[in-house]
Amino acid sequence: MEKVAIIAQTKEGQLSDASNQLISFLSTFSPKRILLLAIGEVKFSSLPSSLPVEVIQVSDGLWADSATIQPLMKLVDGFTVFGIKSIQVDNLLSLLAASSSQEMISGIQHITFSNGKFTITKSIFSGKASLALTTETASYFSLNRNFDFSNNEELKNQPIVPTSTTGPSTGSNATIISLKPITGAIPLPDAALVVGAGRGLKDPGNWAIVEDLAKALGAATACSKPVSDLNWRPHHEHVGQTGVKISPNLYIACGISGAIQHLAGVNGSRIVVVINNDPEAPFFKHADYGIVGDVNEILPRLTKKLQTH
Ligand SMILES: Cc1cc2nc3c(=O)[nH]c(=O)nc-3n(C[C@H](O)[C@H](O)[C@H](O)COP(=O)(O)OP(=O)(O)OC[C@H]3O[C@@H](n4cnc5c(N)ncnc54)[C@H](O)[C@@H]3O)c2cc1C
Fold this sequence. Notes:
This protein is of the alpha/beta class. Helix content is 23%, strand content 27%. Strands 1, 2, 3, 4, 5, 6, 7, 8 and 9 form a nine-stranded mixed β-sheet that branches. A five-stranded parallel β-sheet has the order 11-10-12-13-14. A hairpin with a 2-residue loop joins strand 1 (3-11) and strand 2.
């Protein structure tokens, strides 16, 4: 491993402890170059001073189009690329791997490298089991957030770069960085009426039509998981198997496909109205009322109708 790259997320200019540990860990392989792709701004004082790390700041956002991914691909060409699991890091790792037709391995709990081969233990079945494997071909590696550097032999005797943490101690490894009270007139789990929207809205700037409809109804707003993953909407609005479970009298789902994981959080709703421009969208099978149409057209019309009553 002559050249390693690390994709790391930053928070308020700082790298996470885990990212700093990853840099120290990878330096034990004595690579000729260590390239850090920092998502967001990074303060140079937060970097390990003892290691020669080249830093590239990558804008915080989406890299879905090839125009933004191409320059990054060129930068990491010939590098073995690592990251600590997060939505953004995994997103960028997998886009780079797919765009360059390279293999990516995620969920890594333990990794060693010798004679050109990686030996890996990775979690499978949502963490219920582990799989041991070796690879000579993969170039992209996503390490679990709970990757235990202290149990990885290569790290022994390596300095762990200290970084400051803020917030009260929770008595666990988790540290509260900041607390954000949930805002919004109607708490989602208690709402009798909910307007939910998904990726069909296309852009966070289009949410006014959802909010207007919710306001006209006196409803709370909700969203699908990808929408909160993309930071289009706050996490507390995410409904489904891995989000809030709701059981309102009326759920209006706008531009949401109706994946089983979404349905798991909303199937307690009394009446479900689905608005989708694809008549084949699976959600229609679970709807009491369906409107086949463009949300940009239907929602303002519904709002207007409600406002005049
Ligand atoms: C382990 C696991 C857990 C998950 N947990 C959740 C969860 O808790 N909640 C959740 O929501 N998802 C969850 N998911 C993700 C889920 O599988 C789906 O990927 C997700 O629900 C899709 O979101 P979406 O419907 O917003 O986006 P898409 O699937 O992209 O659907 C967008 C829909 O919008 C429609 N559309 C596009 N343009 C318009 C327009 N102009 N007007 C009207 N309609 C339009 C399209 O026809 C499409 O049906 C989970 C997935 C996994 C693997």
